[in-house]
Amino acid sequence: MKPRFELPGASDDATWKCFIRRQDAFDFNWHHHVEYEVTLVTEGCGTRYVGTTVEPYRPGDLVLLGPDLPHTFSSEPYEGGVAEAAVAQFRHDFLGPGFFDLPQFASIAALLARSARGALFSPAPEPVRRILTGLPDLEPAAATVALLDALDRLARTGGDRPLTGPGYTTAPDADVSRRIDTVCRHLQEAHHRPVKLSDVAALVHMAPTSFSRFFRRTMGRTLTDYVNQLRIETACRLLITTELPITDVAVRSGYQNLSNFNRRFLELKSMRPREYRRTYRAH
């Protein structure tokens, strides 16, 4: 896979940054940072990981992520295609301490508060798309005004959906973050194979029982639930992008038992695999 390409925007001479991220495919890079992040997908489809949630993304999706909310976007390369997103990152005080406490910015402050769980706009309003994709071409002052305009439009548009469950909180300290990062990276690569609690716990040097409690407390769900979510999203991608029989999709997603696969798929997608394939391709 080619290294990430980022077309930089405001950076050294501004209190925030923006860029266009473009790759053959987005590599899995589970991480978090102290800045808010706005990501608008402009090309390509793949899987979005935010906190406890794993789900597909498509062009036009926009997410606003709060500080220290773990996330990544991952996709597979395909012939003639590219993965691209417009990204802006800023700290809460990038316009000065107390800026968003001013009454005229109350709606933006509320939007930023909601972003602690991740806020999804799908699809993003067209005016916001134009603003975000054009940010890297603007001078720092103009880009800053434009970013504030985009945030205001999103706040007034509303209709955003939270991405993580109410029980999820960002990693409270570096050790917890390191352990969860290690586990999530491993599961992203290994979920299509048998996953044993004892093996995953050993990755972070914990006893299985202690790890099970740790994972549920930190991620807001059990290890089994998280693995099933990864597997079903893999199955969705295979159903959409291949002609594989349902039995092969199940096996490649990590399920050896077809009835178990069908049951889990129905639980998470509210439809059966064959119906999902037919519905998606009808669009």
Describe the structure.
- This protein is of the alpha+beta class.
- It folds into 2 domains: 5-162, Regulatory protein AraC (Jelly Rolls); 174-281, Arc Repressor Mutant, subunit A, CATH 1.10.10.
- Helices cover 42% and strands 18% of the residues.
- It contains 10 helices and 10 strands.
- The protein has helices at 106-114, 126-134, 140-157, 174-190, 197-203, 208-219, 223-241, 246-253, 258-269, 273-281, and strands at 5-8, 16-23, 36-43, 46-50, 53-57, 62-65, 71-74, 83-90, 119-121, 161-162.
- The strands form 2 sheets. A 7-stranded antiparallel beta sheet has the order 1-2-8-3-6-9-10, with helices on one face.
- Strand 4 (46-50) and strand 5 (53-57) form a beta hairpin.
- It is globular, with a radius of gyration of 20 Å.
- The two termini are 30 Å apart.
- The model is unreliable at 1-6 (pLDDT under 50).
- InterPro entries: AraC-bd, Homeodomain-like_sf, HTH_AraC, RmlC-like_jellyroll, RmlC_Cupin_sf.
- Keywords: DNA-binding, Transcription, Transcription regulation.
- Residues 181-279 form the HTH araC/xylS-type domain.
- This is AraC family transcriptional regulator.
- Pfam families: AraC_binding, HTH_18.
Describe the protein's topology.
Layout: E1 5-8, E2 16-23, E3 36-43, E4 46-50, E5 53-57, E6 62-65, E7 71-74, E8 83-90, H1 106-114, E9 119-121, H2 126-134, H3 140-157, E10 161-162, H4 174-190, H5 197-203, H6 208-219, H7 223-241, H8 246-253, H9 258-269, H10 273-281
Antiparallel strand pairs: 1-2, 2-8, 3-6, 3-8, 4-5, 4-7, 6-9, 9-10
Helix pairs in contact: 1-3, 2-3, 5-6, 7-8, 7-10
